[in-house]
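Retro notes - structure team

What went well: the batch runner handled both jobs without manual restarts.
What didn't: labels got mixed up in the shared folder, which is why I'm recording both outputs here explicitly, each with its sequence directly above its tokens.

Job 1
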Amino acid sequence: MKEITSTPTRAKKFRKAISSAKKVPIARKYTPQEALALFVEGNFTKGQWELLQGGRKEIYPCYSLLQKAKKECYPAEDSIKVTETSFEVELQALLDHTALRLLQYLKEVIETLSELEKQHLTLIFDF
């Protein structure tokens, strides 16, 4: 208190410093999809992620949400057939899932299109 009242302008400087500190942007929380990308790109282990997340829960989602986000990256389970020697996915289910994921990823771009442009979107695949 003594410091603030030592000069006539000191209180104003303190008030300005406090108000500017309140304006510091708070880091926003990663979405599970963004966190999954970070997890994969960073080559994290489950233990490393939990250690990182434990220190900053307000930014990083828990590991179980990453697992759910990863499951969303695959086509429906009923379109997948796994045996001891092979792994098969129905082509139409894979194409549908890929198109859906692209539309989700490009949502902001799609919203800027006119109805006519949306009706004439074409997805071209090459194998």
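Job 2
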Amino acid sequence: MAEVIKAVYNAKDKVDPERLFEYASAMKNRSLFSRLGYLLERFGADAGMLLECSSNEYVKLDPARKKSKVWDKKWHVNVNMNEEEILGWRET
């Protein structure tokens, strides 16, 4: 998950929202829309186009981890990673 987060962060200013929507749609996975939208928005990018196709049920940000007590209601994401785990890599 760490490498995915780095990739999303590094691409946040270069993302073409329409093209990203097309690629995500091709995956036919609503949880992808939720996770990607959550991360992009958290990093300050426009992710509004992804919201309409995001999951109706909550998904874990990192599918390999246990659920946490932190929920993002807009994107239906269980934020099961802390700030250090999401952005700590930038300090190295």
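One thing worth noting from job 2: The longest helix spans residues 30-42.
We'll revisit the folder naming next retro.
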